[in-house]
Structures are given as structure tokens and as C-alpha cells.
What does this fold into?
Amino acid sequence: MAKGHWLDPLARRLLVATGQLPAAPRRSAPGQSSSGDTGESAEAIERELLALKLAGNPALRLRNAEEVRQLATLGWRLDVNRATAADWLRLPGCTPSQVDLLLRLQAGGVQLSGPDDLQRLLALADDQVRCWQPLLAFRWYGDPVAPSPAPVDLNRSSADQLQGRLPLDAERCRRLVRERGRGPFQDLADLQHRLGLPADLIEALIGKVSFGKGPVGPDLPRPSQPPPSW
It folds into this structure.
């Protein structure tokens, strides 16, 4: 490169970081260590490099928690209740099947109120939630629904158990039992689609239900009660 050639400061730092230009010597006052400044400068360069990569490739996937933290420092946030598939796939370890579930629930009007909702919905490990959390923004587009745990297996509980522990009326419980006889429910999005349930009801079920695998057994009436009328 010709002597005196001008480079934009950010471009120069990029070339230095990738080894295409030598680092400029740093001066420090007598008796003062420059190691702290060097660390801060290296971190700033890493953030700038990440910003350049994202600008050049909007679909770039973050590799680890450190890159998540750097992107959060740059001011980027993932709006959980409005995020696109590309937004979710930026996150380390986020799988296409998880994205599919999130988008199907979003399309049905379902919203998440915090990291606990997201962790229960996707069955995430604690360290994965901590990794993602600096980028997550839970903006509510409507009135929040108070959370209430206590998982109930929708594929195996009786109609009486469903009605007693969940915000479902008797008719919806009967419809649920009839429909699962055709095949077990896979997740909340599958439940909403097959029963045509409203979004606010699905939101109220987050963290309260589970979906057992395997064949569904018959829903037998209690001995002291007559068989239900279908």
C-alpha cells in the first residue's frame, strides 16, 4: 500500500484485526500501563467487526454468548412477539423446529411475557436462556395474562382432570378428548389449529400443559358416574 494512503478509521481497524495491516504502535505515559486500553480497544474492534459482518450478511448467525453480548452492546434487540424467522435464527442453538413453533403461535396471536414463558415453551436449558437474554425484548401488544404453572398432560388426562385444572369449559374438554382420539397433540400450535381455540386461551395454557408421547389411551369415565354423552 502506498505511503500516505488514506483509509476510513473503521476500515483500517478491520484490516489490522484481520492481519492485513500492522497495528500502529501505542504510546503510554511514563509509569502507566496500556494493557487496559489494549483490552478495551480489542473489544471495540470485535464489536465493529461484528457490525460489519451483520451489515454484509443480514442472515449471519451468532456463534456464542460473547457475540450475543457484543450485538446487544451495539443496540440490537429481538422483539420476541414480533420477531421473524431470520431474527430467531441469529440466536446460537435456535433450531428450525423451535422457530416454526414460535411463528405458528405468533400467527395465532399468542404472546410471551418473559424469559420464563420462552424457556417453558421451548424446553430450553438454563444456560441457553442466559445466552439469549441480552438480546430478548418482551414487548406486550395488549393486556398481559397472569402466568400459572402446573403442567397437565393434554394427551393423557381425563376430561374431568382437564376441566378441573385448566381454563377449559366442559364442551371444549369433550372436543379435546374426541380430537386427540384421532392422534395425540404435538404442541400448543397444533392444539390451537385442531380445536380452533382463541389466542388468549392458548396464552393462558403456556407453562400449564405438556404433550405426552406415544399412543393415547381411552378416556374412561369414573365408576360412580355414567358414561359421558357424545
